[in-house]
Amino acid sequence: MVYCQPNDNIRPIIYFRIMSFISYIQLSAIKSLSQLYGQAFSENDFQLNETKPEFEGDYTIVLFVLVKALKKSPEVLGKELGEQILKDHPDFFSGYNVIKGFLNLTIDDQQLTSLLEENYTDENFGKKEPNHQKVMVEYSSPNTNKPLHLGHLRNNFLGWSVAEILKANGNEVIKTSIVNDRGIHICKSMIAWEMFAHGETPDLTNEKGDHFVGDYYVKFNDEYKKEVEELISEGKTKEVAEKEAPVMKKTQQMLLDWEQAKPEVRELWKLMNGWVYKGFDETYKRIGSDFDKTFYESNTYLLGKDFVKEGLEKNILFKKEDGSVWIDLSDKNLDEKLVLRSDGTSVYITQDIGLAQQKFEEYHLDKSIYVIGDEQLHHMKVLKEIIRKLGMPFADKIFHLSYGMVELTTGKMKSREGTVVDADDLIDEMVATAEKHTEELGKVNDFSKEELEELYEILGLGAMKFYLLRVDPKKRMIFNPEESIDFHGFTGPFVQYTYARIQSILRKIGSDEPVLNIDGIPAGKLLPLERQLIIMLEKYGNIILDAGEEMNPSIIANYVFNLAKLYNSFYAEHSVANAESSEKKKLRIAISVMTSGVIKSGLQLLGIKVPERM
RNA sequence: GGCCCCGUAGCUCAGUGGAUAGAGCAACAGCCUUCUAAGCUGUGGGUCGAACGUUCGAGUCGUUCCGGGGUCACCA
Question: Residue A514 CA to B6 C1' — how many Å?
Fold first, then answer.
């Protein structure tokens, strides 16, 4: 985004607050081109890239397109433009070189140290001013008949992180969840509990409520399978057996009773959902998921019926002979879609229409984001289309942030086959791994028990969140237990380690020098790694922008990893505390402070905390 | 079958139409008397699924094909 024209009367340092290097260079090039060749240019007339490490320079203008337009050889054009840019912005650039069709520009060291000095203690570096946009992010949205599993974790981490990234881009964000607290699946657990529990409760068995209820869901399926097999052995067909199994009939009756608000059914329902919520809350608290507003399907499942009536009157919807109501989407390459059953009850999509409407009315949203798996791409497309056809104004403000399934190395997760990775178990395992590694290394033996436990949580969850967020959400991912448990390389703990390492340096230096108030970082020749770090730090603002536009936390994860990697190379090469001169020491302290700040900030956008020591 | 997504190193993944396609893991070889070795440095490993096409230039864009997945319920 371009905010203003570069002007030689304004010192470049001013731009640091309002404009990224890359924007500044782009405008500089446009201006110098116009001056040179007497015609107007735009950012589409050339390409601006980061210079590849094997060449000298920081940013590169690709000249080929210009070569064509201006009918000059790349060498001549590059030289003329390089000279002109340097002449126009002598403070900002210190040199250029032309190789083939590439004009490589080098930023002046003084600009880099100025940028560092301006920003190195700024906790909000890279984040944007409020843009007065209201965005709702719906995520998590669990069923209350079984505990959360690995797939839910990807959803939760993704939703939470995207919400944070959107906040960092200046949006006002409302996090919500729609709890799927009613329906046949809940009744299954309820029936099984009535049949087999003999009054047991999570308190009596000392079990987490969601797991407790989930166990009865499994028991239901076992019983159901048994009954179906019995009926088949009595000579019934599979279809008939599945319909007539007594336990299934009971469950369907219970659903009807629930809908008629039969008190004893509602009471049991409330009781068992209460157990589940208690279990969920524990998990949510542990993984850091939170919601500004929770919708319950039991409150929203009747919504949307008004629109059916209205749609019928406007002839947008039509009724079939059996009384069911449909919408024809064949003009959008979609089929006819049922919106009301023949018995007059609503289907999933009917409530979705109603809830969407409620969200926009209640919160005056500019955008509504749904974090839902990609198996519902079709459903969300249909929903959007129906809303558009019904003439609701917010159809284009609905965005489905779809993400791929998490699969295991052994294949897909299936709850009925017991091949799910339970969320709580996985977290425990990751935290235990963190404990194991930490004990082996023995660096924090002086920590109290409480401090150690906190550290294990930070590291275990950091590893897990990073593992699930480092891949493009759109792609389905394979969960490899051995790899996920690795704390080396492209992992959360690696990045956390870099942070802790910097804190260690600063603690040691801080005792005799003020670390956070360096007056005047001296100019001077920067070493390659010093330059690279400052240039990389400067990019953070654009990274936040990209991640926001794409709604993709993996952009942050990749950036923060590369930053940590670069710092570690720097660390191995140059000493901060024992720098060659006091000027270099000041500079490197500032680089270290800013690096740790950006790491902390970036990880925070992923929902990952940083330890001061590890 | 229609529509949608994916195919890059042994594995997991990066890669705004631009220079010799990059990381991590795994393998191998080095580096702890100096700021945390959960680290650093190096080596090996690729017909970017295939073929055409567009372009000065294609892993990236288009078409076709091959392979994998999803989806097309009076389920949620």
Answer: 53
